[in-house]
Amino acid sequence: MLKRNARARKGFTLVETIASILILTIAIPPMLWSIRQAHVQRVNPMMASKARWLATEKLEDVIADRHSTTRGFGYLIPANYPAEIPVSGFTNFSRTVSFNLTGPDLVSPGTGYLKVTVTVGWTDATSTARSLAIATVVTEY
Questions:
Q1: Computed over its alpha carbons, how large is the radius of gyration of the chain?
Q2: What CA–CA distance (Å, rounded) separates 136 from 116?
Q3: Which residues are within 8 A (CB) of 63 and not within 5 positions of it... i.e. 6 or more apart?
Q4: Can you tell me the distance from the alpha carbon of 95 to that of 56, in angstroms, rounded to the nearest whole number?
Q5: Which of 54, 73, 86, 121 is the most buried (most CB within 10 A)?
Q6: β-bridge mates for residue 55, sequence order
Q7: Rounded to an integer, what is the distance from CA 137 to the centroid of its chain?
Q8: Quick check: 66 and 72 in contact, CB under 8 A?
Q9: For residue 36, what are the domain limits?
Q10: Cα dihedral angle (53, 54, 60, 62), rounded to 10 degrees?
Q11: Of 114, 102, 119, the residue nearest 58 (C-alpha)
């Protein structure tokens, strides 16, 4: 008689099946949310780092053009640095360069000092528009 009861209990009961479905229904959404958050926390800093690198790269190009014997200070105009939308090789990023000719205090209008600002824009993993601006000053002399 003991063998007969063991053979009859070889599957899940309806209560056990419903309990397991209920547990999975409660457990899976928080696990998926955690995976999404981990992705965002991994991707957003990487994108910000790429943006910083892209801004620094363009700023170095401008500084190199300023010190070039064939280009110099007069070459630093917006027409020579068009907006890049998207940046070549970085489809999620855009990059612009702006110039502001100032006096020695770097605020009032004047000549001899050029404030160069490179702005990089991107959309992060949460679909939020972000931007990063890096600036430097180059002189005519």
A1: 30
A2: 5
A3: 136, 138
A4: 11
A5: 54
A6: none
A7: 25
A8: yes
A9: 2-139
A10: -160
A11: 119
Phi and psi (nearest 5°) for 67? Answer: -90, 0
Name the domain count of the chain. Answer: 1
Gap between the Cα atoms of 54 and 131, Å rounded = 12
Residue showing tokens 């601006």? 133
Tokens of 49: 């780092």
- Tens of pLDDT along the chain (141 residues)? 556 555 556 777 888 889 889 998 898 888 888 887 777 777 888 899 999 999 999 999 999 999 999 999 999 999 999 999 999 999 899 999 999 998 888 888 888 899 999 999 999 888 889 999 999 999 988
Q: Which two tokens stand for residue 115?
A: 């404030």
Instruction: Provide the β-strand partners of residue 99.
Output: 116
**CA 93 – CA 96 distance, rounded (Å):** 10
- CA–CA distance, 55 with 90 (Å, rounded to integer): 12
State which amino acid sits at residue 85.
I
Cα separation, 62 vs 136, in Å, equals 10
